[in-house]
Task: inverse folding
């Protein structure tokens, strides 16, 4: 049985879905006013691993993810301007075009690192009605108040407000005071907006919709409550996100949802640790981030990044360095080379499959799971058995190993000719031409390695 750490209880719990075999899983998606970076991808790979483990255990998973395409709240530190509006103005595009552009980049990044796309993708701008309906419910239940600038959730009405973070309310108030949008009519600094009016601070905001209270746009938090409950019902099995979302975004989601339904919103809250650079969170605002295309431009395979993510426990922070990515790339290359010579998959090794399952079911211990994989690779089992078990493991790891297992290198005639030619010039001591030929061969997808025992040919695929 899967055991997983639940932020809500701060303990590792047995995973028991509300209505097995169905599992409803909601993940906070990207804010599409900027590029997706590899820090985000760590969290999304985490989601993907969790989903694959659940599916592999026979659960019928519905994975829902939102796309935050309404620009708001995320104000630029210097100007206080909405970032999406600012991005649009600076690039000469409309806010809709900005959102579309970065959403496309998000999906390219997700596909490159072999993350399964969610079953349902919900855009905030396609669900304005649902958000208005939820605000209406909260209003009816007595949890809101209105100022000239916005409709707020009144946190004094929701007594278990800090149950997810375990913070004291006083600590929260200090954090919330640094808000960029100042509204003097707000009762408590921790109260958060459900709906902003396009007046005052937001007069020039381009995305706007009519509502029963006046023209405006939804607050950030309301979209996740509205869309998750729309697709998964009032109570979800799993809700995921990065640890930065615990104290504000997810805390607010609980307040909004439970105040509306009077039911428990989420059974298991799962949070992923940060990808860091030099000990600091990789983030858009710190500008210390790398994108997936920067990884590939440097000659790395996006799947090496996935491998790197698997080497750390999901709740721990992981410091990104190019050296660690190189080490992951080397490990992946070695694995690929090793499995090429294996026979076709046949009856697998139960012993290793069991150890692997134990590791992943133990709060997603992927470093341990990788160790089991290497023990399998080095074991004396017939390669057909190893192949079968490795491919089973890869259903969860997602390293695309089926492309390599048992795929002995077939060297095309054209390449073989060049290899022979190189052999001859080398014997004649013409190392300059030999090097030229090596480059030519590499361009065709093959690498030559000269060892004391002779020449090895590797595919660079
Ligand atoms: P955002 O677009 O900023 O809302 O982030 C999308 C998701 O990525 C959220 O679940 C964040 O918690 C997560 N995230 C952002 N930065 C990092 C990071 N450096 N490491 C891991 N996850 C992150
Ligand atoms: Zn969310």
Result:
């Amino acid at each position: 049985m899967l055991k997983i750490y639940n932020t809500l209880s701060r303990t590792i719990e047995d995973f028991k879905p509300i209505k097995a075999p169905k599992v409803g899983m909601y993940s906070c998606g990207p804010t599409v006013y900027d590029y997706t970076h590899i820090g985000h991808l760590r969290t999304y790979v985490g989601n993907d691993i969790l989903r694959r483990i659940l599916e592999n255990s026979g659960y019928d998973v519905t994975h829902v993810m939102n796309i935050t395409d309404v620009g708001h709240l995320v104000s630029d530190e210097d100007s206080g301007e909405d970032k999406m509006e600012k991005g649009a103005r600076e690039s000469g595009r409309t806010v809709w075009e900005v959102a579309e552009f970065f959403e496309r980049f998000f999906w390219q990044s997700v596909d490159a690192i072999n993350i399964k796309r969610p079953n349902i993708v919900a855009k905030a701008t396609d669900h304005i009605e649902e958000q208005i309906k939820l605000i209406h419910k909260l209003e009816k239940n007595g949890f809101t108040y209105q100022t000239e600038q916005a409709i707020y959730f009144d946190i004094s009405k929701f007594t278990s407000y800090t149950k997810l973070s375990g913070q004291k309310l006083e600590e929260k108030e200090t954090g919330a005071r640094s808000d960029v949008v100042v509204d003097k009519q707000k009762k408590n600094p921790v109260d958060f907006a459900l709906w902003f009016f396009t007046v005052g601070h937001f007069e020039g905001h381009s995305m706007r919709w009519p509502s029963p209270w006046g023209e405006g746009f939804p607050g950030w938090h309301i979209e996740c409550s509205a869309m998750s409950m729309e697709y998964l019902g009032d109570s979800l099995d799993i809700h995921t996100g990065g640890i930065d979302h615990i104290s504000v975004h997810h805390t607010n989601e609980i307040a909004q949802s439970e105040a509306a339904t009077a039911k428990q919103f989420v059974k298991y809250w799962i949070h992923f640790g940060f990808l860091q650079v030099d000990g600091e969170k990789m983030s858009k605002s710190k500008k210390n981030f790398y994108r997936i295309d920067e990884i590939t431009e440097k000659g790395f395979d996006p799947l090496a990044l996935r491998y790197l993510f698997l080497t750390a426990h999901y709740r721990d922070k992981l410091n990104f360095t190019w050296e660690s990515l190189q080490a992951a790339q080397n490990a992946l290359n070695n694995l690929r080379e090793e499995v090429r010579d294996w026979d076709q998959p046949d009856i697998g090794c139960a012993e290793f499959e069991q150890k692997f399952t134990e590791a992943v079911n133990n709060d997603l211990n992927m470093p341990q799971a990788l160790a089991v994989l290497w023990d399998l690779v080095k074991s004396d089992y017939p390669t057909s058995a190893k192949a079968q078990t490795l491919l089973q493991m890869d259903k969860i790891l997602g390293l695309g190993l089926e492309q390599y297992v048992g795929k002995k290198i077939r060297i095309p005639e054209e390449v073989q000719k060049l290899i022979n030619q190189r052999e001859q010039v080398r014997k004649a001591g013409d190392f300059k031409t030999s090097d030229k030929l090596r480059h030519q061969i590499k361009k065709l997808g093959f690498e030559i390695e000269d060892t004391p025992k002779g020449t090895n040919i590797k595919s660079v695929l």
Remarks:
- DSSP finds 15 helices and 16 strands in the chain.
- The longest helix spans residues 38-56.
